[in-house]
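Structure in, sequence out. Go:
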């Protein structure tokens, strides 16, 4: 479901749409807008959307809704205030793509499995809930000077159960691959994030010595917190005779492992049942059958404070843009715990751009800017995250570009 919320209008409008489509797709949407008072100083808009759909991919579906009321207060031509709330609820399953038999470059048949083929379980889930508040205020302090402030607050929750391949085939007792069976991992994960951004800025239009200036000066405060209470449980590896589980199979110590006959071959018993590539079966998996390794997702927090100044100066056909941004970055691992660790970065980022209008359709341009991306502790997307508090150097970049654009 790809819904774009819209801003309130002073005209009264009502729209309701319902549609059906391929793969059992059902969509419904409501869009109401208009004034709430006779003077049309207070406006509203309500967007509501619902989707329930399947997919050409086995097991995949999407079921969700979005509710997005927004209000605008415009008492005069100098001042405006808008507030928007977005409530988003999505139920689906992760799709790790189409598995194939082996992966030898230039040799493997990419059509060895059908395009609908999926490796997972019928009770897998990827459910997210989030609520976001956005507010924007603008006031003209003078004919050429405007004060603006934007605020955003979002809370996001994840509830995941997933069966996925471990990117390896099953093994027989001699550690030889059984290419019709794929090794599997089961994952349970729950986590919560909270994000808050504040951006006040001034915009000034001025003229000096025939040069037109568009000046912007502002401050950004950006923060994201990974809240305590999240956790991840992973089941993988092979079962031992003593009832425990080991991450890997060691043929030199085969006496320690449980075995079963698979396709006429003696093979170690996996913690999570292998997936049969030749005869896929999508059953309801009993998670209590697995032995999980449980991990707490440690709380984390990062904060960015930044100030910036930019001037876009225009003289005739020539436009020059000069900008500076100073950022201060703080990252906390194990936030508010006894083992809390903090790292700090600071960076001055210049920006330079020049444009020359050749004619009404063609512009020549040149751009130079610097960027950086500090290492953080709030991301859980990496396969093997670094130790908490790792103080790696940030990624740094600079862009140099020259060219011609035409419309």
């Amino acid at each position: 479901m790809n819904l774009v919320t819209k801003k309130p209008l002073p005209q009264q409008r009502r729209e309701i749409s319902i549609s059906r489509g391929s793969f059992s797709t059902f969509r419904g949407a409501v869009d109401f807008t208009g004034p709430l008072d006779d003077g049309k100083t207070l406006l509203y808009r309500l967007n509501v959307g619902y989707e329930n759909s399947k997919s050409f991919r086995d097991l995949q579906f999407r079921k969700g809704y979005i509710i997005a009321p927004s209000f605008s207060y415009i008492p005069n031509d100098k001042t405006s205030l808008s507030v928007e709330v977005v409530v988003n609820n999505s139920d689906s399953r992760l799709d790790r793509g189409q598995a194939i038999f082996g992966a030898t470059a230039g040799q493997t048949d990419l059509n060895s499995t059908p395009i609908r083929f999926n490796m997972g379980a019928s009770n897998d889930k990827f459910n997210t809930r989030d609520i976001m508040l956005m507010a924007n205020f603008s006031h003209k302090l003078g004919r050429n000077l405007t004060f603006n402030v934007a605020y955003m607050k979002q809370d996001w929750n994840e509830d995941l159960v997933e069966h996925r391949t471990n990117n390896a085939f099953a093994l027989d007792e001699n550690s030889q691959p059984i290419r019709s069976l794929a090794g599997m991992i089961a994952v349970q994960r729950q986590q919560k994030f909270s994000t808050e951004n504040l951006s006040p800025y001034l915009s000034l239009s001025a003229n000096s010595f025939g040069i037109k200036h568009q000046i912007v000066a502002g401050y950004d405060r950006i923060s994201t917190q990974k809240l305590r209470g999240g956790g991840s449980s992973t089941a993988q590896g092979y079962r031992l005779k003593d009832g425990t589980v080991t991450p890997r199979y060691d043929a030199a110590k085969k006496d320690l492992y449980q075995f079963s006959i698979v396709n006429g071959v003696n093979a170690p018993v996996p913690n999570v049942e292998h997936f049969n590539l030749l005869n896929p079966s999508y059953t309801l998996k009993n998670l209590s059958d697995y032995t999980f390794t449980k991990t707490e997702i440690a709380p984390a927090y990062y904060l960015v404070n930044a100030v910036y100044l930019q001037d876009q100066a225009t003289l005739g056909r020539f436009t020059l843009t000069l900008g500076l941004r100073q950022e201060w970055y703080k990252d906390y691992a194990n936030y508010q715990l006894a083992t809390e660790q903090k790292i700090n970065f600071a960076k001055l980022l210049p920006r330079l751009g020049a444009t020359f209008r050749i004619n009404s359709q063609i512009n020549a341009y040149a751009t130079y800017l610097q960027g950086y991306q500090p290492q953080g502790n709030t991301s859980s997307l990496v396969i093997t995250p670094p130790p908490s508090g790792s103080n790696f150097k940030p990624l740094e970049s600079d862009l140099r570009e020259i060219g011609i654009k035409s419309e």
